[in-house]
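Q: Sequence in, structure out?
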Amino acid sequence: MEIKKTPKADLENKKSTWLLIGYVIVLAFMFIAFEWTQRDIVIDTSQGIVDIVFEEEIIPITQQQPEQAPPPPPEVIEEAPQVAEVLNIVEDDADIKDTRLASSEETGEKISVGKYVPVAVEVVEEPVEEEIFEVVEEMPEFPGGPAAMMKYLNNNIRYPTIAQENGIEGRVIVQFVVNSDGTIVDANVVRSVDPFLDKEALRVINSMPKWKPGKQRGKSVRVKYTLPVMFRLQ
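A: Exactly. Output:
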């Protein structure tokens, strides 16, 4: 037969209630304990007293120099006895002939005065290198203009076979100087793509006809010119 307890005598019903009350009491004690404890106090000692350093004056120690011995007396060098020089006088009885230079007035000869002919000295002047301009009032121009220059490049460029087989293409930038007479000199590759394409671009530039030279203040001058040469496979 099961034994039944009265609600007042049954403590299992109030177990959870008392457990919550205990938690609340514990938390309250912990809160009070934290409030009463002192917080950490940090004292800044950076502005504190610095140790005073006393510099002691160092007095140099005077040392007594040892007495130096007196220098020895100079040695007396005995002079060698002087030898009297003997001069031997040799008698010279040789007859000396009287030599006289006769002037033209005494001889009666006429003096011929020749005419001075200056010797011509050939002066070789060193050639003065003309200044190379980059920008002038009238820039140099290919005969016929830019359109004629592009046509010349298209008709004269021979695409290297090795570059065609390897599929190499690009733009080679060549820089050269247009002389005052229109000739092309000092061509060099500024931007390279391939050695074979560079070589072909230089060949075509150097084989160009004479350009119309650039002018500065109405005078033909040397001008540096930059020209891109395009290689493109069809």
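Residues 48-54 have pLDDT under 50 and may be disordered.
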